[in-house]
């Protein structure tokens, strides 16, 4: 998987992922022009959407019609020396039985983004100098 970010305006960056494009920016109070969600908001969106998709895929495999599923993610970045806090709220239709709700709640924590954030993470960084684009 690969994502490439290129500045498009002040702090705004166009992000290319496969054939898709997103925009990330900062809100005005942080010097941006609010052309898109902030990188921190995109991280919360990643966890919320991955959790929802994982729940839906599991329900489909089980043959369960779970109706409308909604996942809300609140995210508080870590202060130095502290823990990052993600708060997930799963919303399921009241028609689900308690066993389904329990199983879907357990499965939610097994989404790939959750496992990535919960596991050990390593970073590799490489610097490449390029010529400025001609005007």
Low-pLDDT residue spans = none
Q: In the CATH hierarchy, what is the architecture of the largest domain at level 2?
A: 2-Layer Sandwich
CATH topology of the largest domain: GMP Synthetase, Chain A, domain 3
What is the strand arrangement across the widest sheet? 1-2-3
Helix-strand makeup class: alpha+beta
Main beta-sheet annotation: 3 strands, antiparallel
Distance linking N and C termini: 31 Å
Number of domains: 2
Helix count, DSSP H or I runs of 4 or more residues: 3
Helix content: 25-40%
Give the strand content.
15-25%
Compile the SSE list and pairings.
Layout: E1 4-9, E2 12-17, E3 20-24, H1 39-62, E4 70-76, E5 85-91, H2 98-108, H3 112-118
Antiparallel strand pairs: 1-2, 2-3, 4-5
Structure described in brief:
With 135 residues, the protein is of the alpha+beta class. It folds into 2 domains: 1-36; 38-135, GMP Synthetase, Chain A, domain 3, CATH 3.30.300.20. The chain has helices at 39-62, 98-108, 112-118; strands spanning 4-9, 12-17, 20-24, 70-76, 85-91.
Structural descriptors:
2 domains; 3-stranded antiparallel beta sheet; 31% helix; two-stranded antiparallel sheet; 5 strands; 135 residues; GMP Synthetase, Chain A, domain 3; elongated; alpha+beta; 3 helices
Care to describe what's here?
With 135 residues, the protein is of the alpha+beta class. It contains three helices and five strands. The protein has helices at 39-62, 98-108, 112-118; strands at residues 4-9, 12-17, 20-24, 70-76, 85-91. It has a three-stranded antiparallel beta sheet with strand order 1-2-3, with no helix packed on it. The chain has a two-stranded antiparallel sheet with strand order 4-5. The chain is elongated.
């Amino acid at each position: 998987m690969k994502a490439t970010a290129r500045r498009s305006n002040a702090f705004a960056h166009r992000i290319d992922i496969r054939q898709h494009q997103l925009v990330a920016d900062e809100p005005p109070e942080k010097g941006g022009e609010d052309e898109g969600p902030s990188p921190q908001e995109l991280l919360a969106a990643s966890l919320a959407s991955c959790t929802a998709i994982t729940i839906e895929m599991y329900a489909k495999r089980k043959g369960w019609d779970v109706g409308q599923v909604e996942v809300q993610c609140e995210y508080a970045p870590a202060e130095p020396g502290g823990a990052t806090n993600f708060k997930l709220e799963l919303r399921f239709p009241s028609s689900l039985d308690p066993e389904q709700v329990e199983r879907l709640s357990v499965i939610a924590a097994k989404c790939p983004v959750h496992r990535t954030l919960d596991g050990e993470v390593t970073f590799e960084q490489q610097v490449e100098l390029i010529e400025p684009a001609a005007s």
